[in-house]
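pinging the channel bc i need a second pair of eyes. not urgent but kinda urgent?? the chain im working w is below, pasted from the shared doc
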Amino acid sequence: MKNLNRANIYEKIFCALQKGGIQTIAKTAYEILQLPLVIIDVEYNVLAQLPEEYIGDLVWDTLMKKKKVPMEMVWQFKRDNYIKEVDRSDRPIYVDWGIINPIPRIMGNFKVMDAIEGYMGVLFPKGGFTEEHIEIAKIICDAIIIELQKRDNIDTSTCAHLLCNFYMENIK
């Protein structure tokens, strides 16, 4: 992970939001974290996955190949309680048990109007997890929420207001 202070992280994410697109946010997040990152929608379709290469992880490599989480894997996620734990948390969580072993990861959700719209994962193939990663993952999830709200045809004045609030509130 690059040595960036919180203001630099917010600035980079804000610029990605201005450009628009989940893929743009994912590329910026990958540049910041320098760790494998995947974003999927609530129907388990891959929206973004970086880097676009196999890494020797069962879940990651399956997503690379199929661009969707297969139903048998969704059921395994439910058995391992990932979905339950992530869904009830208001911030991303660190996961190091079950099917995702031996590569731990952060898993987080993003909600629009209290409805879960998808999930984000950040993998740690070489270890190195810190609490700062959770905070950065939360910023990324928040940016995805804003991007999804932009797509839902919120009028542009509201969208601009959301972007300004995101940037100004989080610089402090």
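so The first helix runs from residue 6 to 19. and The chain has one domain: 6-171. — does that match what u expected or am i reading it wrong
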